[in-house]
TrEMBL record:
Residues 114-141 are annotated as: Disordered. This is Uncharacterized protein. The keyword Transmembrane applies. The chain crosses the membrane at residues 6-30, 37-57, 91-110. The keyword Transmembrane applies. Keywords: Membrane, Transmembrane, Transmembrane helix.
């Protein structure tokens, strides 16, 4: 069950949608199996971008001026402020979690530096020559 107040549900859409759109673009450009380093860097950037977008939207929605009212029973001044939260946490603070996730993907990308992409087993190498299939004879023309 997801609990939100005001426009707090946008946090789920922003923090999930921006990285998903980035992954869709990555797969559309590079195909279904991009290099691990490329994948980690793109995920890191998209999670960071989603966090920044969520911070900006949360600050805009929660930062508005409050409405000042007078309570009829007590005569006291009451200020009503807009509140947009997800699980009782204001929207913009979910961006800290996104920043930590981006840091984790950045560390994963750093771990991929210097690694060569694995070659498929039995695949051609730079020094090998193609061999004839079994049951056939090789002839030079």
């Amino acid at each position: 069950m997801i609990i939100w107040q005001g426009w707090g549900i946008l946090t789920v859409l922003i923090l999930g949608g921006v990285p998903a759109a980035g992954m869709a673009a990555l797969f559309a450009v590079l195909g279904p199996k991009p290099a691990p380093l490329t994948f980690s860097i793109v995920v890191m950037l998209m999670v960071l971008l989603g966090g920044l977008a969520n911070w900006w939207v949360g600050r805009r929605l929660n930062g508005g001026p409050g409405r000042e009212l007078i309570d009829a029973r007590t005569g006291q001044r009451v200020i009503l402020r807009p509140r947009h939260s997800l699980f009782w946490i204001p929207m913009q603070y979910w961006s800290v979690l996104s920043l930590l996730a981006a840091l984790g993907f950045g560390i994963a990308a750093a771990g991929q530096l210097g690694r060569e992409a694995p070659r498929p087993p039995g695949g051609p190498t730079a020094t090998s020559t193609p061999k004839a299939p079994p049951g056939t004879t090789e002839r030079q023309i």
